[in-house]
Amino acid sequence: MILQAKNLDLSYGKKIVVKDVNIEINRGEIVTIIGPNGSGKSTVIKALSRYLKPQKGQVLLENKNIFSLKTKEVAQKVAVLPQMKNVPEDFSVETLVGYGRYPHLGFRQRFSQEDYQIIKWALKKTDLLQFKERQLNNLSGGEKQRAWIAMCLAQKPEVLILDEPTTFLDISYQLELLDLIKELNESMGLTIIMVLHDINQAARYSHKLYAIKDGCVHSSGRPQDLLNEDFLKDVYKIEADVFQDNKHSCPYFIPLKKVN
Ligand SMILES: Nc1ncnc2c1ncn2[C@@H]1O[C@H](COP(=O)(O)OP(=O)(O)O)[C@@H](O)[C@H]1O
Ligand SMILES: [Mg+2]
Predict the structure, then answer these.
(1) Domain regions of the chain by residue span
(2) Is the pTM above the cut of 0.85?
(3) Euclidean distance between CA atoms 1 and 108, whole angstroms
(4) Which is the closest atom of ligand 1 to the Cα of 36?
(5) What is the pLDDT of residues 74-118, one digit of tens each?
(6) Which comes out higher in pLDDT, residue 129 or 141?
């Protein structure tokens, strides 16, 4: 196991929003967290990526309490694609990607040849070499997301965490991004933890799903074992028909109506 959440309670101020959550992430897996709006998905992601300290319980990165590790140590292993991004839009793609190298630099150390090579490799992996001098604000939504992923890759992480990476992208960019994530997982063995809104996409691209409802893990498992009519009724309060997608060996559903 590369990352594990054990009996996590998470709160903002006094309000506990996540209760007794257990999550196990094996190396090389794509694990997706799904669940209704406001159920606590982003909150769990924040704890897994060391942004939010648990009220109770632990997050273990390779069996070490993540809060006992230095920010830099964690950043050498875990890269996070944030949902809210506060970076000047006049940054060039290459400048942004270069930020991924900072966790590996010593105090006042400048980029080495190796750093420049890794930046180039990250740009190439995300098909952005031709855009490296462009400003972020001159990129399409899909290209911009790829630039952020390139920054994460330049970190040379073992785990990549993404909170709703496809939001605001049209369907072709959504598929492009998910295919890129899958390719990174397969070619490099990169462990992926993400939150996805689209349940069918989650089922198609993940080895394992965690469903969060009302701040608790409702259920978890392989998409083919988890996604069925009862699950959709229970977690999302919808009636749906569930089918098998033989081409991608995963289930998919068509929503019929809301139930109460
Ligand atoms: N910064 C915050 N301060 C206070 N409450 C928050 C904050 N962020 C989220 N919440 C609350 O925590 C709950 C879970 O939110 P969140 O984890 O963002 O849900 P999800 O990502 O599943 O939509 C919600 O009730 C939300 O209003
Ligand atoms: Mg969220």
Answers:
(1) 1-76+158-260, 78-156
(2) yes
(3) 35
(4) 22
(5) 999 999 997 777 778 889 999 999 999 999 998 888 999 999 999
(6) 129
Ligand 1: list residues with CB < 6 Å.
12, 17, 35, 37-43
Mutate to test the pocket of ligand 1, among 42, 235, 236 (most ligand atoms within 8 A of CB): 42
Among 8, 10, 11, 12, which is best to mutate for testing ligand 1, by the most ligand atoms less than 8 A from CB?
A: 12
Task: Report the topology of domain 1-76+158-260.
Answer: Rossmann fold (3.40.50)
**Using CA positions, which residue lies closest to atom 12 of ligand 1?**
17
pLDDT (tens digit per residue) in 7-22:
999 999 999 999 999 9
User: How far apart, in Å, do the first and last CA atoms of the chain sit?
Assistant: 38
Ligand 2 center–CA 12 separation, angstroms: 14
**Residue indicated by tokens 């996540």:** 18
CB 237 within 8 A of CB 258: yes
Cα 28 from chain centroid (whole Å): 13
